[in-house]
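I hope you will forgive my troubling you with a question about protein structure. Could you please explain, in whatever detail you think fit, how the structure tokens follow from the sequence? Thank you for your consideration; the sequence and its tokens are set out here.
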Amino acid sequence: MREPIRCTWATGSTAAMCAYHDDEWGVPLHDDRALFEFLCLEGAQAGLSWRTVLDKRENYRPAFRDFDIAHCATLTDARIEKLLADPGLIRNRLKIASVRGNAHAALAAIDEFGSLDAYLWSFVGGKPIRNAWTSSTQVPAFTDVSDRMSKALKKRGFRFVGTTICYAFMQATGMIDDHLTTCFRHGGGKTQAR
């Protein structure tokens, strides 16, 4: 059976990266817990490759109780110290501690907007932005939308949410569909509830 045509970044990659591309990346995600997970994992990626984070994601889930927002808000300094000793995680103190701070900011957004989903999706008007790039060189690293999201999240106390991280987050969670027009997933349209 012939391999499907994928976006350039996933072509010839690992099985895990291909599965991520095929099943998750660019699929609209509306679950608060899963959105929080991606926000934290995209922040953990800062300065690293997504493959590094993806390879460690299954270690992150139990470490942060599947990114339960209320639980993450209660992480103690002692627990953060234990997590820093875990070789299955990216052992950067600021990145690990940011999960706790981001949980507090997420809970405040949920109180104000009813859900993290409603707040985050408001930056794209509640529906995906579907691009029609023909080459990976056309795909931006950030946009005016990611700039707005980054500024707003920082103002609310979120950390590791620069404009490039926000753009990657929006791509990952389907707020922006940046699958190339040649990719079999372009305009895929399925919704992920995870």
